[in-house]
Design goal:
This protein has 147 residues and is α/β, with parallel strands linked by helices. It has an eight-stranded mixed β-sheet with strand order 3-4-2-5-6-1-7-8, sandwiched between helices. A hairpin with a 5-residue loop joins β7 and β8. The protein is globular.
């Protein structure tokens, strides 16, 4: 089964996502970032190009060539063209293809509707037999495993 790690954000997704993806790259793994729309994918890819003048996150989207070679692939479709083992869900989706990944990182905000939706996804994944873990972001942007 897939390990589903819920990441409770206190900072903006655009500030937190690059740090998690840096960890993916550092561990020599690949990721698919699943967003709700193509417009959201474009906004996130722009953010990954500009989030830090000192860092580079190799990534691509469907409009780029060589999807299979991309360590990080951003998409609004349920696809895994780069053979990723990690799925990062950023817009509170419940993907049907989660079983094709070793881990799923489910990122949600501190708003009440986002927390409620995350609780529902937690129950859904748990009842499907997935291992679920909860990570909470502190005020400095670091992650602490809570459950």
């Amino acid at each position: 089964m897939t390990e589903v790690s819920f990441y409770h954000l206190y900072r903006r997704l655009e500030d937190s996502l690059p740090k998690l993806l840096e960890r993916v790259i550092a561990s020599s793994q690949r990721a698919v970032v699943l967003a709700e729309t193509d417009e959201r994918v474009e906004a996130l890819t722009s953010q990954l190009w500009t989030y830090s003048p000192d860092s580079f996150l190799p990534h691509g989207t469907a409009r780029d060539a060589f999807a299979a070679d991309q360590p990080i692939f951003l998409t609004a479709a349920e696809e895994n063209p780069n053979g990723a083992t990690i799925l990062v869900v950023v817009d509170e989706r419940v993907p049907d293809f989660i079983g094709g990944f070793a881990r799923c990182l489910d990122m949600f905000t501190d708003s009440e509707p986002s927390k409620q939706a995350a609780r529902e996804r937690w129950r859904l994944y748990k009842s499907a037999g997935h291992d679920v873990v909860y990570w909470q972001q502190d005020e400095n942007g670091r992650w602490e495993k809570k459950g």
